[in-house]
Amino acid sequence: MLKLLRSSSKNNQPNLFHSQLRDMLDSADPLIALADTIEWDYFAKSFAKYYSNEGRPAKPIRLMVGLLLLKQIENLSDESVVLQWKQKRQ
Fold first, then answer.
1. From CA 75, how far away is CA 85, in angstroms rounded?
2. Is the pTM of this model over 0.90?
3. DSSP H stretches of helix in the chain
């Protein structure tokens, strides 16, 4: 079985930068809630082979997977997900 959820036995050492960043983000945002439950390294390793080091830099794998998951969970269109992401960046 694939291990997609984060293991509770991992090193939970506090990260000062991460803590400060989390305080600035909207805790009601579905992507924020999702971020703590997903094993992102699994996706990074799985999708890395599809990314190229040439040309314009790609969006991070974590962002792309997060948006795809949000799209499926919320039953949104591609356009809706991108529009929401753009609005939250402003």
1. 15
2. no
3. 16-24, 30-35, 40-47, 61-74, 78-89
Task: Pull the structure tokens for residue 65.
Answer: 């997977």
N-terminal to C-terminal alpha carbon distance within the chain = 39
Q: Write out pLDDT tens, residues 37-71.
A: 889 999 999 999 999 889 998 889 988 998 898 89
Contact 37, 70 (CB under 8 A): no
Listed residue (39, 38, 63, 33) closest to 51, CA to CA? 63
64, 48 in Cβ contact below 8 A? Answer: no
